[in-house]
Amino acid sequence: MATGSNSLIWFRKGLRVHDNPALEHASKASSGSMYPVFVIDPRYMEPDPSAFSPGSSRAGVNRIRFLLESLKDLDSGLKKLGSRLLVLRGEPGEVLVRCLQEWKVKRLCFEYDTDPYYQALDFKVKEYASSVGVEVFSPVSHTLFNPTDIIQKNGGKAPLSYQSFLKIAGEPSCAESELLMSYSSLPPIGDVGSIGVSEVPTLEELGYREDEQDEWTPFRGGESEALKRLNNSISDKAWVANFEKPKGDPSAFLKPATTVLSPYLKFGCLSSRYFYQCLQRVYKDVKKHTSPPVSLLGQLLWREFFYTTAFGTRNFDKMKGNPICKQIPWKEDHDMLAAWRDGKTGYPWIDAIMVQLLKWGWMHHLARHSVACFLTRGDLFIHWEQGRDVFERLLIDSDWAINNGNWMWLSCSSFFYQYNRIYSPVSFGKKYDPDGKYIRHFLPVLKDMPKQYIYEPWTAPLSVQTKAKCIVGKDYPKPMVMHDAASKECKRKMGEAYALNKKMNGNIGDDDLKDLRRKLETDEESNIRNQRPKLNQVLKYLMRF
Ligand code: FAD
Asked: Which of 2, 173, 317, 357 makes an SS bond possible with 190, Cβ 3.0 to 4.6 Å?
């Protein structure tokens, strides 16, 4: 049986050896053993056959695979240092308590996590640990800053604009500190006793099938891959120096226009602090470089901004009870939501992005903008929380703070309020990819559609559709709404919702929202009635082809 100075490092995110203060502290267990543990949490990992795509109820199978690859890589990193990853299954709090008891752990180390799920879980685990005299070390290392510090510096409130965040945050302390990147060895694993531990399971062992998807994400999980990707990005100093979002091409998929480091940052396969230091080094070496908010370092700071705001805002992941979120009477429409989710809106640019999400779990930032705007304030007027749920489940970089923050941004519910600026589901993508290569890749049904119709296939004459082997309405859906009319309608609704928010000073009750929803729907019906003659004219014109 193990002796009294044993430590346990509990991996959740932070799936890396480099710059991992929790691991570093655990490894200092003077004469004892170190138990590196990962708990397979059924909440995230249990297959859900009733879900709309393969995966668990909370995570698409791409992200589960990415996580397993990351765990495998972590395990092999630990094995090189004389340790290994002990994989357990069950409700993490209960599993942890059993391990602490059985292995006579004196020091419990895990990275601090601001997500509400981990806040609640960690509170319970810490309470138990302190009641039995186990030392807990839970450092902030997922982000550059400690959100609590920034909120404190700002008088107890989270800063609500990026610029005020920058001013308050200043330089992170990690800018100057030396990061521990590797070890010569790690303490040995002790006897695991009666606790059932396993190697990292395969997808099949978790109940998934390799043939569940016809195309998988091309991005492999793990620290090794993260460091390789980072090195590839930063070795092109001119690219880093000139990086300027939002100038990149959202349709570039063979060689994405951005780093694709987000899934590695999400799982902590890559330390954001190391990323920060690498960027600083590049900036020192070049004469001129871009600056926040558009620079690459500026992107990392957007991450910090959303982490801080999310941590300091009540009900950040909801419209109701969220003090920074406009109250908007979004529409409930399951069929429309499902069409958007499944890439069946009839707008190839939107559908291709949603198929990339289903197949790859990653899309360019502006592609995310396009589909989020389309679902909410741009065309369909559906609740941002419903789009958020789809992203949360399918993205391999799915991140509670960043995802919720960006959905509020795109739906003009918070942070950004220019609801008259709407992305066109036709001309926006065309600007970057006039030939429609991106669409042809993710929507092969349109691969032979001539380029002049690829963004609006319903306008192609029937003879052209026949030749392209894609009849709109049969092989590919007709557009579910006409963008010009739908976006006009959305702007009108947003205008009325904003006016109500202003009038009530944000204190809008359920009944106020219900009343406004009823009014907007009645107005919409009468608008449609008035527009019908015009629509009929358009249809007659189209039928001539
Ligand atoms: P790069 O441009 O190379 O940026 C480097 C890093 O900076 C990223 O990896 C990411 O960690 C951070 N970053 C970049 N843009 C943002 C941003 N707008 N906000 C916060 N951090 C940023 N990103 C996620 O990581 N997880 C999400 O769940 C997520 N959901 C989103 C939902 C919507 C509706 C939108 C519009 C954006 C969302 N983003 C999310 C932000 C952004 O799209 C991705 O971080 C980015 O596209 C990832 O690609 P990259 O790593 O190549 O980014």
From this structure: 2
